[in-house]
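Quick one: structure tokens for this chain, please?
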Amino acid sequence: MINKSFFNKALIISVGVLIISSCSELLNTEPITDKVVPPQDEQILKTVAHAEGAMNSIYAIFGNEFWQFDYFYLGDGGADVAYAGADVPEFFQIDEYRINSTNYVIARDWNHTSDFVKRCNLLINYIDNVPDLPQDRKDEMIGQAALFRALSRFMAVQIWGDYPIINSTITSVNSGNFDSLYNDLYPARRPVAEVYDAIIADCEIAIAKAPDATFAPESKYKPSKSAAYALLAKIYATKPNPDWARVIQYCDEVMSGGFSLLATYDYLFDNLHEGNTESIWEVNGEGQSTLINSWCTNVFIGTNWKKFNTPSHTLNNALDVKRKASTIKKFPTTFSDPYWTSFTQFPHPWKMRATDGTQNFYIFRLADIILLKAEALARTGDLPGAMALVNQVRNRVSLPAIDPAISEDDAINKILQERFMELAFEGHRWFDLKRTGKSIEILTKQTYPVYDPATQTFTETPMPYQGNLTPNDLVWPIPQDILDNNPNLKQNPGY
């Protein structure tokens, strides 16, 4: 049995006494009462050290449960890439689409994404008045914080739909300012379209102020203009009424930026080719180990307890030889699992392999953007151009050219299948299915083999959620404790 405290592990970053004391107040989402706080108009970031500490606290978001674990679990375990694995009921709920509003994973991820936005707000709102900090450094930090905020909100709006938009930084609450701060203390959810407008605005700030990507590895570990273009491409493909011309435009900005596919697929994940030519934005466990310890690998691989994200039979059967060798690793089995019975070896995800806290992982890499442009071309009628891009990705793993697409829907299905094989265990699949409107069509067809010892044969059996999967299940509920503490929030339909 896994202790839940493993997944609630705190990441404590020492960024100076002032930043620590400020953030402990600023990042609390519950009502503030009887606390000693600074005046509302006080400049929180007083020194260069405080400013850099605030920037480091933003980078540190990649070290907690959302980005280390839950993002990969939702993206893969919530789709047909993986089964839940392990032995935690709350994750079985997610895997089987029977989530309720008291699920602790849902609550911690709402709190994490809210926390991420507040950390970014702190820097954006106070950095301009820090003395002795050069203006070019201030601009760079604002651009990077804006892109982190955009990424955080992009995750949230895909998971929950309507989402609060808070840009302020609250440093004190008293009888004199409570009324003016009420809407930020107890925010209502804003419509999805408004959230996307806010995300796009932040990306535009990042394009104006974030540094250019270079080909030094450390450049890939920071938000850059190229990362902003990649995020904008995703946004315009995902938002209501997608703008496919913009998707093509921003994909082209990335693809013309000097990035290239690695010749060897496995180099992407062997932790020996960090900051490589395919990487657009990469989380660096090793180089930023004081901020980020990539503990997540330990929840996906190993034989000391049954791990999460057990590879699905659908994925295992679909992968080509080269990508399977980099994606799934089988070990002699000692585990009991309803989906893998009567097998001598048990599968684990294999893209994140380093168990010493140094594993890197990607936010964006070039193959993802190439296939996203293929999707946009298919949506705008250029089926040959779309398939040419798919073949560019297939060529890297020595696969033959794909058959020509005979319709837009056929092209989208082919692109989705290529993304399924190329990006498995990188946290994309659940979001890809939602974006393309294919979730129910594909997930309700999933089966797994059940072994009959009497006949020594396997029978394909429907996944447990097939009979109850509806559009309402494709957004998570608002956590019940968040609803209880905020009268201005409304629950999503079906929960």
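The longest helix spans residues 135-160.
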